[in-house]
Specification:
This protein is an alpha+beta fold and about 375 residues long. The protein contains 10 helices and 18 strands. One of its GO terms (biological process) is L-tyrosine catabolic process.
Length: about 375
C-alpha cells in the first residue's frame, strides 16, 4: 500500500543542517563526450555553455556543460587508457557519476554529512579564476555515485573555474521547454533500499515522503519497492528503488545486471507545457515508452477533469495521474543508451506533488514489453 508520511506538526522544527538550494548539475561519465553533447543539444534542446579539455590546459579529460533553463548536464570523457573515468564507463556504460547539490556552504555541508557517517569522495577545496571562486566537496551515495556540494555565491563564470564559455554548435537544437530537475531516482541492490533511505535521513537530514510497497507496483512479472526521500524545502527529491521477487526478472534487476552496481536510473525533468515539449522531442527522434489505447478508455473516470483535451494527450501517449492536490502529466523515454540503464521522465505538475502511482501498472507493463524485446524478462 502507498503510505504517505504525515507531516510532523507537533515536533519542533530543528534547524536544517544541510540546506540545499537545488540540483546544481548532473555529471555523466561517457565514452565520447563530443557525440553525447551533440545528442543532448540536437535531441533534448540543451545549449552548450562551457567546456574544459586539452584546449583549456586539462590533459586527462574533456567536459561539455549543457544547460536548459535551470537544468545543467556535464558530459565528461577520459583521454587516457586507464583512469577512474574509463573504469567507470567500462563497468557501467555511460552513467551518472555526480548529482551535484547547490549549497551556500560547501565546507559545512561536507562536515555535517561526514560527521554523520558519509563516506568522503573528496575533501573541500576552493578554486578561483577571473570570475571569482567556487568551493567544492564530495561524498559518496549508492554505488560509485557521488554528491558534490557546490558553493558558487562568489562566482559569475559560465560554470566552474577551469571551464571556458562555449556556445552551441547545433543550430537545430533549440530549447524544448525543459525547466528544472524534479527528482533523480536510484536503483539499489536487493534489500538495500532501507539502508539508503536511512542514509538520506541520518546523514543528509532528508525526510521520508512516500513508500510504495510491492503490492502497489508489482505487475504480473516484475516487481519493485520504492521510497521517496526529500530535503527540507522539497527542492531535492530522491526516490530509491530496490528489486522485489516477481514471476520474472524485475526491471530493477535488469538495470543492476547491466549497470553492474547501484546507480541513477532516471532523472525527471519539469516542463510547463508537456505537449509542446514532447511533440518536439518526438520530432527530433527521442523514443518514448508507450501504453496501449485501453489506458485512455477510463482515463477521465480515473483522474476527473483535466484542462487538456484527451485526444491530444492520447496522440502523444502521455500518462496522467491525480492526487489530493492536483494532477500531473508524465512520459518516460526508452533508455538513452544501448544498455537498459539510464532514462528520462518528462513531467508537468499541475498541483500534484506525487509520482504517478496511478500509472505504475501501465508504465511497468510498458517497461516489461521492452525488457522482453531485449530478452531480459
Ligand atoms: O520516480 C518515480 O517514482 C516514478 C515512477 O522504475 C517510477 O517516475 C518508479 C520506478 C521506476 C520507474 C518509474
Ligand atoms: Fe520518476
Amino acid at each position: 500500500m502507498e503510505t504517505l508520511t504525515p507531516a510532523t506538526t507537533a515536533a519542533p522544527q530543528t534547524a536544517d543542517f544541510l540546506p540545499l538550494n537545488g540540483t546544481d548539475y548532473l555529471e555523466f561519465y561517457v565514452g565520447n563526450a563530443k557525440q553525447s553533447a551533440y545528442y543532448y543539444q540536437a535531441a533534448f534542446g540543451f545549449e552548450l555553455v562551457a567546456y574544459s579539455g586539452p584546449e583549456t590546459g586539462v590533459r586527462d579529460r574533456a567536459s561539455y556543460v549543457l544547460q536548459q533553463n535551470k537544468i545543467r548536464l556535464v558530459l565528461t570523457t577520459s583521454l587516457l587508457a586507464d583512469s577512474d573515468i574509463t573504469r567507470h564507463v567500462a563497468k557501467h556504460g555511460d552513467g551518472v557519476k555526480v548529482m551535484a547539490l547547490w549549497v551556500d556552504d560547501a565546507r559545512k555541508s561536507f562536515e555535517e554529512t561526514t560527521k554523520r557517517g558519509a563516506k568522503p569522495a573528496f575533501e573541500p577545496y576552493t578554486v578561483s579564476d577571473e570570475h571569482g571562486e567556487v568551493t567544492l566537496a564530495g561524498i559518496y551515495t549508492y554505488g560509485e555515485t557521488i554528491h558534490t556540494f557546490v558553493e558558487r555565491s562568489k562566482y559569475s563564470g559560465p560554470f566552474l573555474p577551469g571551464f571556458v564559455a562555449r556556445t552551441s554548435n547545433v543550430p537545430q537544437g533549440a530549447p524544448v521547454g525543459l525547466q528544472v530537475v524534479d527528482h533523480c531516482v536510484g536503483n539499489v541492490g536487493w534489500g538495500e533500499m532501507n539502508q539508503w533511505v536511512k542514509f538520506y535521513e541520518d546523514v543528509m537530514g532528508f525526510k521520508l515522503l512516500i513508500t510504495f510497497d510491492d503490492e502497489d507496483i508489482s505487475t504480473e512479472y516484475s516487481a519493485l519497492m520504492s521510497k521517496v526521500v526529500s530535503n527540507g524545502n522539497g527542492y531535492v527529491k530522491f526516490p530509491i528503488n530496490e528489486p522485489a521477487e516477481g514471476k520474472k526478472k524485475s526491471q530493477i534487476e535488469e538495470y543492476l545486471d547491466f549497470y553492474h552496481d547501484a546507480g541513477v536510473q532516471h532523472m525527471a525533468l519539469i516542463t510547463h507545457d508537456i505537449r509542446s515539449t514532447v511533440t518536439e522531442l518526438r520530432r527530433r527522434g527521442v523514443e518514448f515508452l508507450s501504453v496501449p489505447e485501453t489506458y485512455y478508455e477510463d482515463l477521465i473516470e480515473r483522474v476527473g477533469h483535466i484542462d487538456e483535451d484527451i485526444e491530444s494527450i492520447k496522440a502523444l501517449n502521455l500518462l496522467v495521474d491525480r492526487d489530493e492536490e492536483g494532477y500531473l502529466l508524465q512520459i518516460f523515454t526508452k533508455p538513452v543508451e544501448d544498455r537498459p540503464t539510464v532514462f528520462y521522465e518528462i513531467i508537468q505538475r499541475k498541483g500534484a506533488k506525487s509520482f504517478g502511482k496511478g500509472n505504475f501498472k501501465a508504465l511497468f507493463e510498458a517497461i516489461e514489453r521492452e525488457q522482453a524485446l531485449r530478452g531480459n524478462l
